[in-house]
Automatic annotation (TrEMBL):
Keyword list, A-Z: Lipid biosynthesis, Lipid metabolism, Magnesium, Membrane, Metal-binding, Phospholipid biosynthesis, Phospholipid metabolism, Transferase, Transmembrane, Transmembrane helix
Phylogenetic lineage: Eukaryota, Sar, Alveolata, Apicomplexa, Aconoidasida
A molecular function GO annotation: CDP-diacylglycerol-inositol 3-phosphatidyltransferase activity
Chain ranges passing through the membrane: 7-28, 90-116
Membrane recorded as keyword: yes
Organism: Plasmodium berghei (strain Anka)
Protein name: CDP-diacylglycerol--inositol 3-phosphatidyltransferase
Family membership noted in the UniProt record: Belongs to the CDP-alcohol phosphatidyltransferase class-I family.
Domain of life: Eukaryota
Main location: membrane
GO terms for cellular component: Golgi apparatus; membrane
């Protein structure tokens, strides 16, 4: 039976758990690297579960969609902050990537909501880059995993000794994940541009309707 209390939908409960795990990971990141990796990794793995449970139990909701996006951005921002704290020379670049990430996702999601679209994953108007990213689940999942892996590895490489097992693993992970992570960063910018254009088109349509054209 479908739970009528949206706050207690299974996918939303998973979202709450993801936030708690990510925050704990952030708190212990400088004290216990193993716990940080475990908790943050678990939070990200649960990201795939909330969408599945929403469909399985017919518990999709507007609240759940926004919660999922906020949780994703919160998690990634933790990685931006951690990397910014140890890479002084790259803090401006990291900040710009964070702005592109948050801004791009927000503008795209807002434009879809204002346009009345049921999902932000359906791309119109022939944007091939975003179509590839959003409409090919395997591509999106691979890019997200690579992006998160890149930033986690980057942070761990900076704070561990070269002989540490985590350092050795992350050295390889960083190199392997970089191509898809770079692609993901480009999509963040692309969806911001796409969202802005969509909003302007909506404004133009409103002006035409107002003027009776």
């Amino acid at each position: 039976m479908q739970n009528k209390n949206v706050y207690l939908y299974v996918p939303n409960i998973i979202g709450y758990i993801r936030i708690i795990l990510a925050l704990i990971a952030f708190i212990v990141c400088k004290k216990n690297l193993a716990v940080f990796t475990l908790f943050y990794g678990t939070s990200q793995l649960l990201d795939a579960l909330d969408g599945w449970t929403a469909r399985k139990f017919n518990q999709t909701s507007c609240f759940g969609q926004i919660l999922d996006q906020i949780t994703d951005r919160l998690s990634t921002c933790i990685l931006y902050l951690l990397n910014g704290s140890v890479y002084d020379n790259y803090i401006i670049l990291i900040g710009l990537l964070m702005i592109a990430d948050i801004g791009g996702h927000y503008i795209h999601a807002a434009s879809c909501a204002i346009a009345g679209n049921k999902t932000h994953k359906k791309i119109e108007n022939g944007n091939k880059l975003l179509k590839l990213y959003y409409e090919k689940p395997s591509v999106m999942v691979a890019c997200i995993i690579a992006y998160e892996s890149f930033w986690v590895s980057s942070y761990i490489l900076k704070i561990t000794d070269v002989n540490h097992i985590f350092h050795i693993i992350c050295n390889y992970t960083l190199k392997i994940s970089f191509p898809l992570a770079a692609f993901k960063a480009i999509t963040n910018i692309s969806q911001g541009i796409y969202g802005a254009r969509s909003l302007v088109e909506i404004d133009h349509m409103k002006m035409k309707n107002k003027n009776g054209h």
